[in-house]
Amino acid sequence: MLDLPSGDVTVSLARRALRLATYMSFAALQEELKIQHDVRLSNSTLNVLMQSAGGTAERDRQVVLDELQSVPMGRHRERAVLMPPLASVPQRLYVSCDGVMYRTRYRETDPDRLGEKRLRYQEMKAGTVFWQDLGGQWHKRVMSGRDDPERFGLSLWHLAVQCGMLKAPEVIFISDGGSWCNTVAEMYFGDATRILDWYHLSEHIWETARLLYPNKDKSGKKWAKTCLSHLHDSSGIGLLRHLERSRTVRSATDQAILDKLIGYVRPRLAITDYVDYKAAGYVIGSGMMEATCKQLVSQRLKGTGMQWSESGALAMTALVAHRINGTWDRFWGSRPLQRAA
Questions:
Q1: What is the pTM of this model?
Q2: Domain residues for 260?
Q3: pLDDT, tens digit, for every residue of 6-56?
Q4: Whose CA is closest to 178, among 104, 289, 321?
């Protein structure tokens, strides 16, 4: 009826199709479009729409980062953040980040098979800011990117400021012990209460148990539960003392295994005060971050057989973020397809 050129779609249809695309594969989306709108769109058309709209969303984020980096840190940079209206200031604001590996379209030499190529995996960094309102309801905002830790951290800081971080009485940064997460925490959230994710540390304990008792599942479970009990009752320092005592009666092989866990715990003691954290009512696990990684990245980038270009992965996660953050309508009000043309 509109007599559009081949491959062109209306903005209205593009907006609907791409919102569905943040939930499902293009194959499933094509079926839904046929059922719901009696319209067929090819893979190439959907990809162009995704790259155009999602690419615009990612460029918008990069423009903001460029502007913030040009402003000195401190009050000048804080004043440069455009603040959306806040219903209320969060009393306790949590900030977290993590990474998710996904398959790309690129190939690299397989070191185990001379001359052969294998799929290359890349990490999408994800961040979330979450809080509980006075009515007990949880809220969160998310972002993602492939930036280096310094630039990604600035993007996460920008999101946290927009969520009320500068006025919140308490700010908590919770993440695993990865080096780039530590960089983000130290550069942009130095005044926040730092917490090492309980479940991440627990995974290190269980992995150590499997190495100490490779063929004795019950013994390994008992050992791990004893360690977790010390961690629960006496925080990281209690766990460290237990490990150091246990080490003295172990074989050289076991000592080497325990030394690896001890080497992980000791430099992170300051962020493992779980007894105090629980007494204060803090969240000590990264459940919200794990859910964010799944919603923001895994559900859409890690489907069976999916392979992504750099621009495609960034475009899709940028669109998913707008949906999760409730900024979808505002983003489309900025005419992303027209700006991409």
A1: 0.92
A2: 199-279
A3: 668 889 999 999 999 999 999 999 999 999 888 889 999 999 999 999 999
A4: 289
